[in-house]
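Morning run. Coffee first, then this:
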Amino acid sequence: METTKARIKIPQLSKVKAELQKEIQSACPFCNNTDVGHFEIHHIDEDPSNNEKTNLILLCPLCHSKITKDDIKQLDVLKKKINLIQGTKECTSDNSNVNFNGAVSTAIIGSNNTISVKQSKTTVKSNIQKAVSALTR
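And here it is:
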């Protein structure tokens, strides 16, 4: 049975929301919706007690719902947050494909300045906190 983590109120909520809004440049990082008055804060590691700014991302309600339903994968949310922190734009074109023969649980594939991380779902959650911690060092 999975235990539910206690939700802890985000300290200085207005300030945190303003910082997150600046980080996303007032547009949902997934769909570019700009109705920021209705945006919601999502905990990337799905731990509502972890209110570190590196674990929070501001989203429109529709994209937040898609993440909750797993229509947008947790790894994609983490990659988006990393890009936001680094101030980089994602490359949306996929000009090449890489095929693996056999089972691959973790692979890093680079193309010029773009890196794609492909992992099995079981490793994603444990790697989220490691990646966020590495960014804040």
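The radius of gyration is 16 Å. Good start to the day.
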